[in-house]
Amino acid sequence: MEKTEILKSEMLEKHHLRREEMRADVLRPLQKSGLWGNIWVAFLIAIILIGGYAYYLQLKNGLIVTGLRDYATWGIYISNFVFFVAISLVGALISSVLRLTNFTWYRPLTRIAEIIAVAGVIWAGLIIIVDMGRPDRILNLFLHPRIQSPILWDVIVVSTYLTTSVLLLYLPLIPGIAICRNTLTNKPKWQRWMYKVLSLGWNGTEEQWKIMKRSIAILCVVIIPLAISIHTVTSWLFATTLRPGWDSTNFGPYFVAGAFLAGTACVIIGMYVFRKAYHFEKYLTDEHFGYMAKLLVFLAFVYAYFNINEYFIPYYKMRGPEARLLTDLFSGKFAGLYWSAQILGMALPAVLLMFKQMRKPLPVTLISIPVVVFAWVKRYLIVTPILIHPYLPIQNVPESWKNYFPSWVEIAIVSASLAGVLLIITIFSRLFPMISIWETLENEGIDLEEMDKLKIEKV
Amino acid sequence: MRTNFENRLLRKLFLAVIFSIPIVLSAKTESAKEKNNEVPVVATMKLTFSEKDSLKICKATITSGEKPLGGISVKFYAKRFFSLLPLIPNGKAVSTNEEGEASVKFPKELPGDSNGSVIIIAKVDDDEHYGSLEAKDSIKWGTIISITSQDEEWNMRSLSATGDKAPVYLLSAAGVIIIGVWGTLIFVIYSLFRIKKAGKIKK
Amino acid sequence: MKNENDKSDRRKFLKFGALAGGVVLLGSAIGKAITPEPEKKSGEKVKVLTADGKLMEVDGCQMKHPAANKFTNQEMRKGISGKKFVMVIDLARCANARKCVEGCQKMHHKQAPTEWIKVKRMDDAATLTPYWFPQPCFHCDNPPCTKVCPVDATFKREDGLVVIDNERCIGCRFCMAACPYNARSFNWGEPIIPQGMEQEEYSIEKSFPAKKGTVEKCDFCPDMARQGKLPDCVTECPNGTIFFGDQNEDTVTNGELTFRLKELLTNRAGYRYLEELGTEPRVYYLPPVNRDFKFEEDSKQHNTEDYKII
User: Whose CA is closest to A415, among A35, A129, A43?
Assistant: First the structure.
């Protein structure tokens, strides 16, 4: 857009109107929650309560209430942990990688991606505590830390990533909170108080814009290595062992690639839900779904590349104990899950999304659902089959030890954690604008910083 | 009468306990004495060590008074932590010759303690005439086990050692990364306060 | 002695035999208690003590353990000075009697299906005859398990042992995942502790009393070694399959036979299981050549029952 002296005030007026329009659009969902919204929250809370009761039973009786035993010593708690870490990576991908590579279309999606990241990493931290046999001794991690252990690296990197993600969610949100503070005056007292505190006295001064934008720029650089670390370290929980199937140098990039794929699919589903529920059609456009679909295809191919390295090359060699595992995955009792994960969760979505007709919002979302579901399944396949295919044969143990099937307690707790992620996202979206107004308008060539400056100068 | 009997019993019981302590303590001596009582001839075994041209010999000499006793099977052992190690690999015995002497070569490179001492035991098990005999002595022929090197090795920093013995490169790398990243994060958190301040000034 | 004169009372005296016997045994226990420690460690006395072991079992296993309590956590984390424990398992002698498993379970008060030492049927190839493979913890010199522990709950001692501090363990089970041999077990539920022993003080060297939600495994019985005694799996084996000893002394014994470690390994082509993993186990195997027993199928199924929630 070209700016000339004569047109400037006219344009400013136009921009002003556009800003007011967008503010109204974005804040409308915050005005009141509908019946379905309340049923949804009640449903999530019910699942969390059931999970809470299951966890109480587990605390009381020990991990004996799970399907885990001495061979399958890690189960769906750990695969769920890996899944949550995986989806949390997308925050970094959307708001940082795309930003640093000078794409701009991503901007209306940042908030959705960031809140998925924050909710995912919070529950990743919680679910790993659930997996512990002695959660009462968690302080030992700080009293007797052993820096050589990948678990400690994970503790460090998860807490760091959580902090960074929260900051990266919060900083661009400050102008939004300020708008909430100024306009949502009919809200309960605590909510108004929260807006007041969290908006940090935002007035859109030049200094404030400058500090905020610079802080975001810093975080965007920091979060990329952090995001890669968090998932690489998580992959090291497996790759630092000598177990056939985990003993792989490919694991870090393999996990990171899979995480980007799963997270992108999550964001697509989130986009669709918010577009429908909050009527964000104007902001989360068909074009955005198209871009995300293309990104998904690209990431699926990257992931496929690492999968070929991870499975085909060992299959080519068929080294002793690994051969038993691979046979079980390819044609044994895990074959159904394995091929579903590879085909429905990776190959088919990539192929389908290459067709333009498929890159419309609804088909993209429908294709993304199996990508997310099988991303979870894939993490289960990474954890458990390997544990029940050790070097030494499993003998003289109860029949149930030779296989793993999660107990209802595990399923309840994992469901609760999934519900927990959704609950965090839901509650957040009820309190804060889900689309970043200033970032989106910047895309349209409307610089709110500039406008604020002019307004202040006028005053 | 009954009390009298009980008193006597208790007295005997008491005596039994008192006597049992030294009896148990010296159970071995006792049994040896018993055997000696059966066999009128008392034999003694002496253990000596000699070294000639790098050949190390453990020699047991069995005599009865001045008279050397031949044809008696002697087994040689080195004392170990859990058991006795036969100096002849298959555990066979050596017969004494006419001079009453039986000898074995001291095995090559047999570890001793931190001074290189090995306790050698010569044994005669249940000889039909002389019963069981034993002689033991310590000799500094063993190779020295260096406890210090083991200690040093254990105290070395490594990935499998305890947390306080983490490798320096790991500690420093982790430290640099943590300080670097958290320094940045703290700076950003500090920026939040600056944002607040910047808002106030304009007001 | 003087008893000769009291022949008339002898029968009545015998009525009190059991009591008197008990007291004599008590006397012997006192006697043993005041015997200086080094005497106990003599190889010869081991056998005497083994015979006495029966008497002690009458009083329960508490009698076996108090010695371990004298050491501090710090000392137990360091280990027995100057030792380097090592095990040699002669596969030619193993007939799957499973006495090592039972002895170990009894000694450590573990119930099936928990086995700290396992006996596995190994079928290396279709053309080869299967053999039985007793498998304890290998106490590796490059242990993958201690590497990954986040809280120093499992660690390598100076005497070569890899042990667990169940009062430190957070139950993350990373060590179990890291052990390529599955040597580790977990207290999934509340462990069953024999009556009257609940109050016993925990010691790393006894691995007892077990604690819910923590990892446990074969510990090479350092509390027994402190007393100069062999682990129960060694002494319980009717075929003398398992040899135990100190590598620094170059000696291993199965209680009956004693060999020089290097000679035994050289003469019998000793090897370590999965040497290529580089974990450097402290357990060596002698290949099953010239076997003492023909391979026989195990007619019984073991450990078919899972734990029950208590």
Answer: A43
Q: At what angle do helices A448-458 and A206-239 cross, to 10 degrees?
A: 150
Of the candidate CATH numbers 2.70.150.10, 3.40.190.10, 3.30.390.30, 2.60.40.10, the domain formed by B39-139 belongs to 2.60.40.10
In this complex, is the C-beta atom of C148 within 8 Å of any C-beta atom belonging to chain A?
yes
Could you tell me the residue ranges of all domains in chain C? 21-59, 70-286
Judge whether C235 and C100 are in contact, CB under 8 Å: no
Q: Which of A349, A227, A277 is nearest to A112 (CA)?
A: A277
Q: Which residues of B touch C9 (CB under 8 A)?
A: 5, 8-9
Q: With an 8 Å Cβ cutoff, are A396 and C113 in contact?
A: yes
Q: Does A211 lie at the interface with B, CB-CB under 8 angstroms?
A: yes
Cβ–Cβ contact C9 with B under 8 A: yes
Q: How many domains does chain A have?
A: 1
Neighbouring chains to A with at least 3 Cβ pairs closer than 8 Å: B, C
Optimal mutation site among C117, C151, C300, C301, interface A, most CBs of chain A within 10 A: C151
Chain B: closest CA distance from residue C28 (Å): 6
**How many CB pairs lie under 8 A apart between chains A and C?**
160
pTM (predicted TM-score): 0.86
Average pLDDT over residues A42-54: 98
Structure tokens at A290: 């198209």
Instruction: Give whole-number Cα distances, C51 to A454, B134, C37, C56, C106, in Å.
Output: 99, 21, 18, 9, 18
Task: Judge: C305–A398 Cβ closer than 8 Å, yes or no.
Answer: yes
List of chain B residues whose C-beta atoms are within 8 Å of the C-beta of residue C156: 154, 160-161
Return the CATH architecture of domain C70-286.
2-Layer Sandwich (3.30)
Enumerate the domain spans of chain B. 1-38, 39-139, 163-202
Q: Look at residue C50 and tell me whether its pLDDT is greater than 70.
A: no
CA dihedral C224, B158, B170, A158 (to 10 degrees): -30
Tokens found for residue A301: 């191919």
Report which residue type is found at A271: M
Yes or no, beta carbons of B20 and C28 under 8 Å apart: yes
ipTM: 0.91
Predicted confidence (pLDDT) per residue in A271-301, tens digit: 999 999 999 999 999 999 999 999 999 999 9
Cross-chain residue pair B21–C30, CB shorter than 8 Å: yes
The 10 Å CB-count burial string (b at 16+, else e) for A404-421 is: bebbebbbbbbbbbbbbb
Residue C209, preceding peptide bond in cis (omega within 30° of 0):
yes
Average pLDDT over residues B11-15: 67
**C:266-285 residues touching chain A, CB 8 A cutoff:** 274, 277, 279
**Pairing assessment for the beta strands C85-90 and C283-286 based on DSSP bridges:** parallel
pLDDT in tens, C254-294: 999 999 999 999 999 999 999 999 999 999 999 999 999 99
The SS3 call for residue B118 is: strand
Measured in whole angstroms, the distance separating CA B25 from the mean position of its chain's CA atoms is 21
CA distance A47 to A60: 20
Q: Is B19 an interface residue toward C (CB < 8 Å)? A: yes
Task: Say if the Cβ atoms of C190 and A74 lie within 8 Å.
Answer: no
pLDDT reported for residue A65 = 95
B147-163 per-residue burial string, b: 16 or more CB within 10 A, e: under 16:
eeebeeebeeebbbbbb
Instruction: Find chain A residues with C-beta within 8 A of B172's C-beta.
Output: none
What is the number of CB-based contacts under 8 A between chain A and chain B? 76
CA angle centred on C82, ends C271 and C38, rounded to 5°: 115
Domain residues for the domain of A298 are 5-458
The total number of residues shown for chain B amounts to 203
Question: Nearest residue on chain A to C153, judged by CA atoms?
Answer: A144
Q: Which candidate from B5, B145, B159 shows the least CB-CB separation from C147?
A: B159
